[in-house]
Structure formats: C-alpha cells, structure tokens
What we know:
It is built from 4 helices and 5 strands. By secondary structure, it is α/β, with parallel strands linked by helices.
Amino acid sequence: MELHALKKRKNRTMPSKRVGRGYGSGKGGHTCSFGQKGQKTRAGYSKKVGFEGGNVPLYRRIPKFRGFRNVTRVEYEPVNLSTLEQNYKAGETVSLKTLRDKGLIKKRTKNVKILAKGDLKKSLKFKDVEFSEAAFKRTHEKKAKKSK
C-alpha cells in the first residue's frame, strides 16, 4: 500500500480538550487558560447581569421618571369649527375617516375633539367625535331653533 492510495477520512474531528487536567490537556496546565489569580480564575465564578467592571451600571446612570403618570388619560386631537366650515360641504359626515382623508388630523389619531373656535353655518353630521361644551352648544343651538 502506498500513501497516495489511502482514502481520506471524512469529517474527522479532534477530540475535545479537557479543561483543568494538567499540562497534557493543551490548555496551559495548572491555570487552564484562565490566567493567574483573581476573581475570574476561581471555581464558581459568574459575572452578574449588568456588571460593568466597577463602573456605575447603565440602569443606575439613566434618569428616572418621577411624579404622577396618568395611564388612563385620553389624548384628543383638536379640530375647530372654522376648520370644518372651510373643508366640509353641507350635509357631509364628519368622522375620523373623513378627517384623515382631508388631512385635518394625523393618521394615528384615535380621538378627536371639536372645539368652538369659529362659526359653523352648515349642517353637518358627526360620527365618532367628541365636542367641547361650547362647541356642542353652538352646533346644537341651530337644531333646537329649527325644531321650535
């Protein structure tokens, strides 16, 4: 048999090195490649999560929120009566969808409040919107006068 006639062995892996088993392990003998002395060389060492080598950890460096946070608060995007007067025709419905389509509110807005700034001379239908007290009186006065 000659050397060129030998078949190559496939997927041949070296046996894993045994850590901490003397100089024959190939890992530096008695230090086992952990270095000399210190916390990290000892048995049972494990670094705590967030430990930064003696620096003040990130979670202690960042500013903390202080005070009251109202989680149940509802944010409204305001729309004035004068804006509705300019952008809607008589008889149209004012809803979140139509306000978005006309570009009067942001796309993510979920709550709209109609405010009383300006006059509304047209009769409009309202759907899924809130009113300030003054705006409610102004929009519903005309209906009350018509019904009398």
